[in-house]
């Protein structure tokens, strides 16, 4: 019988995921009435609770109301959205920028607009789900290369010539904390006359000169082959996403992206808050503080089985699923929230604790976390 109660097949309980029912208070997180230090947030600079950022959002709501009321093409547009687009483009070193509702909407809409069944896409195997789904929706031929394997990418590019080709990759990968070699990817893109899409959701505001991300580090920003995606939900501390590229590319996307045209514009409070967040990022102290915290964590934890990462994502490989779960439970008891990440999110046998470091942590809090980790491994 067709019925909503039996539509989904039962899954093995170890794989079942559900909502945590959590609430955050600054750097703390409360789960089932227990307060813990949060080492699981992508709010890498503490901007989600920065007083100036919160005030900007409140002021915008007081002046313009909450919802935008329609898509940007109907009546939901706002000068603050345009100002944020201009400032993001200037900061990142691109000609133009387009603001979207979220990273998921940005990637799905971007790939759907750029690619069709005649396009060949070359994608890292560990790309974010939004890029995977965008490629699927576009109907393009998809060739997936092993994680970070530039030799394999080069071979694939030789094997599949086509008029329209796109290389697609995360910049900073969120489960391993490792990074794509953007310099080499751009050389391959140039040698094979291919577009390059980099989604640097986690690198934006956290790595590179002034936190401008991996493309700034690789010195490829503004290259007209490059389209970059970033989000406001991570280091910017709020919600939303943006696409950077040449003037012609962004104008083309404005006219074509279904996730822009058929989706309600961001509430004005979000660009208002993001403009202040951007100013704070550009001042540099928060990015410096994050770097200092990272350095401290890496030094203190040098005896632990951390994955090689110099980014705010610091996975500690445990191996067996049960061990990772048990460690996460014990950490909770000690007052630290660090999630266990298990297959299928990561490969079998590499269950891990995913620690994220923020500028909002104090050196004492980081020292206490490392002490707790050492007592458990
Ligand atoms: C978080 C993330 C997204 C999704 O962004 P949202 O704004 O949360 O929808 C897309 N790509 C990458 C690489 C991400 O880490």
Q: Can you tell me the number of structural domains?
A: 2
CATH class of the largest domain: Alpha Beta
* Through-space gap between termini: 50 Å
Structural class: alpha/beta
**How confident overall, as mean pLDDT?**
96
CATH topology of the largest domain: Aspartate Aminotransferase, domain 2
In which range does the helix fraction lie? 40-55%
Question: How does CATH name the architecture of the largest domain?
Answer: 3-Layer(aba) Sandwich
- Total strands: the figure is 14
Content of β-strand:
15-25%
The Rg value, from CA coordinates, equals 21 Å
CATH superfamily of the largest domain, by name, is: Type I PLP-dependent aspartate aminotransferase-like (Major domain)
How many strands, what sense, and barrel or not for the largest sheet? Answer: 7 strands, mixed
Regions with little confidence, pLDDT below 50 for 5+ residues: none
Taken from the alpha-carbon principal axes, the silhouette is globular
Order of helices and strands: EEEHHHEHEHEHEHEHEEHHHHEHEEEH
By DSSP (H or I, 4+ residues per run), the number of helices equals: 14
Across the major sheet, the strand order is 4-10-9-8-7-5-6
Which ligands are bound?
Answer: pyridoxal-5'-phosphate
Secondary-structure topology with pairs:
Blueprint: E1 22-25, E2 28-31, E3 34-38, H1 51-64, H2 72-76, H3 79-92, E4 96-100, H4 103-114, E5 120-124, H5 129-138, E6 141-145, H6 150-159, E7 165-170, H7 182-191, E8 195-199, H8 214-217, E9 226-231, E10 241-245, H9 247-256, H10 258-261, H11 269-283, H12 285-300, E11 313-319, H13 321-333, E12 336-337, E13 340-341, E14 351-356, H14 363-376
Parallel strand pairs: 3-12, 5-6, 5-7, 7-8, 8-9
Antiparallel strand pairs: 1-2, 2-3, 4-10, 9-10, 11-14, 13-14
Helix pairs in contact: 1-11, 3-11, 4-5, 12-14
The structure holds pyridoxal-5'-phosphate (PLP).
């Amino acid at each position: 019988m067709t019925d909503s109660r039996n539509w989904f097949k039962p899954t093995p309980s170890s794989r079942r995921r559900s909502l945590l029912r959590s609430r955050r208070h600054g750097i703390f997180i409360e789960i089932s009435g227990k307060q813990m230090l949060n080492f699981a947030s992508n709010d890498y600079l503490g901007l989600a609770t920065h007083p100036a950022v919160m005030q900007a959002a409140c002021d915008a709501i007081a002046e313009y109301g909450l919802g935008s009321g329609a898509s940007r093409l109907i009546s939901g547009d706002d000068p603050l959205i345009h100002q944020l687009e201009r400032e993001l483009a200037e900061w990142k070193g691109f000609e133009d920028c387009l603001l979207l509702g979220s990273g998921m909407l940005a990637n799905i809409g971007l790939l759907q607009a750029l690619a069709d069944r005649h396009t060949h896409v070359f994608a890292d195997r560990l790309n974010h789900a939004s890029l995977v789904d965008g490629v699927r929706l576009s109907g393009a031929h998809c060739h997936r290369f092993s994680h970070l394997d530039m030799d394999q990418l080069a071979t694939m590019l030789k094997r599949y010539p086509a008029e329209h080709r796109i290389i697609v990759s995360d910049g900073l990968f969120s489960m391993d904390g490792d990074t794509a070699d953007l310099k080499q990817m751009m050389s391959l893109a140039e040698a094979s006359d291919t577009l390059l899409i980099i989604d640097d959701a986690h690198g934006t505001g956290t790595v590179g000169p002034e936190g401008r991300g991996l493309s700034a580090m690789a010195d490829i920003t503004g290259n007209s082959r490059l389209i970059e995606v970033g989000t406001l939900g991570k280091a910017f501390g709020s919600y939303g996403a943006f696409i950077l590229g040449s003037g012609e590319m962004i104008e083309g996307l404005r006219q074509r992206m279904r996730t822009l045209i058929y989706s309600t514009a961001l509430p004005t409070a979000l660009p208002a808050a993001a403009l202040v967040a951007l100013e704070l990022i550009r001042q540099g102290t928060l990015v410096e503080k994050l770097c200092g915290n990272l350095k401290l964590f890496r030094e203190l934890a040098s005896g632990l089985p951390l994955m090689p990462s110099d980014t705010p994502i610091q996975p500690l490989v445990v191996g067996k699923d049960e061990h990772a779960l048990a460690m996460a439970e014990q950490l909770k008891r000690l007052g630290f929230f660090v999630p266990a990440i298990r297959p299928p999110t990561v490969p079998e046998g590499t269950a891990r604790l995913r620690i994220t470091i923020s500028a909002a942590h104090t050196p004492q809090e980081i020292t206490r976390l490392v002490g707790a980790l050492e007592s458990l491994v």
